[in-house]
């Protein structure tokens, strides 16, 4: 019941926005801009003929691939840069220059290198999500409290044990923060990337709906679905923060 | 008793704004095997620096630390440090913390970890994470983790200062109970003269910076000690006087 009570104000705000939207469309008598109900029927239509699931599946698959590759790349690299001073000094300036470049700016190069297939958006997602994860992982290693490293030193454990039982678990909360940020930007970028080319995905669905006869009900349906899936993905990452092994960092 | 730790002419300074800050100069002390020695001194006198040098975390500028007749060269598992902040790994359970210092190939490591958890009164909490424990229990976990690797020396730097007075006293008694079972050499830093009298065999008073040994007091009372006894009170006054605090009993 407490959760319900907390959710109530936000539900009211959303209801007000939807009501306002509905009222404005009704008052202006817009021929193109859909009502909320129009969006619902449009969504149901797409859901019934199955194209909606294909688009969602395509977008999620690209995000999964691009983000997965970025995780596999960023975490070992971030740990290495965090632990080995020389690696940090050598690589950090390059990453700091690459990091502020919007993934959108990479689109022409992605098309040049990878064509208009799946590889382009996967590459763009990789580029977008890899840097925040490298940075967070590196920061995580740099901020390990000295008393823990000293204790490990005191017990004279092997290098393997030092990494598996001290460095990595101590960094894990920051790694998870990085993954949350990374997945967030990955989802942002997949939609943008799909707007450029390709024949599937939620981004494609939005652009295609507009081009194929101003179906703005489907444009807005796509936007709302993107928002909801983004929320679900973030919720999934937040579940990781609830793991007992990282609770020490987030609790209190 | 053979000499366990020998600190010979140790000096240490740090770079400061106006040249150099000498923290320790020509400090000599020795600790016998199995002896419990407390170091008391004014705050900022370099106690922690001295402890870090003896434990091997810090190299002295001059002089040497000799442990078991061999010059100290870095920290090792024969001497475990316990500090005020503590260093129990928050991402490992109590049991995993105890297993941490034990080599993987040790056949009875699991049983050993359980035995030491029980020794400090943490039976039933082996699978709890540190953030699920109270401050006193966390200290017990830290002591168990130190003892399970069978160290020869315990270095304790204000170990109970973060606890409240009652819990601190309880932990002192607990420590004495455990030490009665396993004879370790202990070096304790404390600012609490009563704590030192309560637990130590010998109390060394350090001078203000740069630190030297200013005075040494034997504590000849049998355990369990009564701090309210006239002899203990007289000792307390004498130590406080060395620290520059005049007090009438």
- Please state the overall shape of chain B, judged from the principal axes of the Cα atoms: globular
**How many distinct helices of chain B?**
7
Element order of chain B: H for helix, E for strand: EEEHEEEHHHEHEHEEH
**Uncertain stretches of chain A:** none
Q: According to CATH, what is the topology of the largest domain in chain A? A: MetI-like fold
Residue-averaged pLDDT of chain A, rounded? Answer: 90
> Which range does the strand content of chain B fall in?
25-35%
Name the assembly state.
heterodimer
**N-to-C span of chain A:** 23 Å
- CATH class (first level) name of one domain in chain B: Alpha Beta
Largest sheet of chain A: none
Order of helices and strands of chain A: HHHHHHHHHHH
- The assigned structural class of chain A equals mainly alpha
- Count the beta strands of chain A: 0
Overall tally of domains of chain A: 2
CATH fold name of one domain in chain B, please? Rossmann fold
Task: Indicate the CATH architecture of one domain in chain B.
Answer: 3-Layer(aba) Sandwich
CATH class of the largest domain in chain A: Mainly Alpha
Class by SSE composition of chain B: alpha/beta
Q: Can you count the helices of chain A?
A: 11
Low-confidence stretches of chain B: none
């Amino acid at each position: 019941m407490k959760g319900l009570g907390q959710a109530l104000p936000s539900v009211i705000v959303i209801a007000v926005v939807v009501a306002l939207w509905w009222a404005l469309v009704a008052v202006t008598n817009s021929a193109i801009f859909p009502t909320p109900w129009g969006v619902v029927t449009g969504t149901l239509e797409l859901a019934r003929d199955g194209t909606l699931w294909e688009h969602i599946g395509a977008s999620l698959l690209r995000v999964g691939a691009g983000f997965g590759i970025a995780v596999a790349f960023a975490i070992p690299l971030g740990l290495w840069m965090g632990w080995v001073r020389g690696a940090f000094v050598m690589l950090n300036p390059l990453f700091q220059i690459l990091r502020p470049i919007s993934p959108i700016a990479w689109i022409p190069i992605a098309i040049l290198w990878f064509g208009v297939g799946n590889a382009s958006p996967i590459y763009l997602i990789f580029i977008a999500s890899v840097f925040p994860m490298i940075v967070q992982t590196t920061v995580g290693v740099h901020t390990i409290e000295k008393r823990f490293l000293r204790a490990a030193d005191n017990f004279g454990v092997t290098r393997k044990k030092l990494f598996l039982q001290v460095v990595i678990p101590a960094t894990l909360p920051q790694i998870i923060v990085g993954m949350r940020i990374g997945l967030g930007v990955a989802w942002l970028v997949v939609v943008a990337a799909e707007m450029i080319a390709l024949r599937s995905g939620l981004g494609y669905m939005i652009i295609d709906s507009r081009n194929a006869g101003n179906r703005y009900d489907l444009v807005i349906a796509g936007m709302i679905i993107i928002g909801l899936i983004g929320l679900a993905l973030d919720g999934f990452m937040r579940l990781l923060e609830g793991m007992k092994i990282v609770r020490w960092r987030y609790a209190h | 008793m053979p000499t366990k730790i020998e600190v010979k002419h140790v000096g240490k300074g740090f770079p400061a704004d106006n040249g150099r800050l000498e923290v320790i100069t020509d400090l000599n002390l020795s600790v016998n095997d199995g002896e419990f020695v407390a170091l008391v001194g004014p705050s900022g006198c370099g106690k922690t620096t001295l402890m870090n040098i003896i434990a091997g975390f810090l190299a002295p500028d001059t002089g040497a630390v000799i442990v078991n007749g061999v010059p100290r060269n870095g920290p090792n598992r024969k001497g475990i440090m316990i500090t005020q902040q503590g260093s129990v790994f928050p991402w490992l359970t109590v049991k995993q913390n105890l297993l941490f210092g034990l080599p993987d190939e040790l056949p009875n490591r699991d049983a050993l970890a359980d035995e030491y958890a029980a020794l400090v009164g943490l039976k039933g909490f082996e699978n709890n994470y540190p953030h699920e424990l109270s401050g006193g229990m966390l200290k017990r976990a830290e002591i168990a983790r130190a003892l399970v690797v069978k160290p020869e020396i315990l270095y304790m730097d204000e170990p109970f200062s973060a606890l409240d007075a009652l819990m601190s006293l309880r932990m002192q008694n607990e420590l004495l109970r455990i030490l009665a079972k396993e004879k370790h050499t202990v070096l304790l830093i404390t600012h609490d003269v009563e704590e030192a009298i309560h637990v130590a065999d010998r109390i060394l008073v350090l001078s203000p910076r740069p630190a030297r040994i200013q005075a040494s007091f034997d504590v000849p009372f049998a355990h369990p000690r009564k701090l309210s006894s006239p002899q203990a009170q007289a000792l307390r006054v004498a130590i406080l006087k060395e620290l520059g605090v005049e007090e009438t009993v």
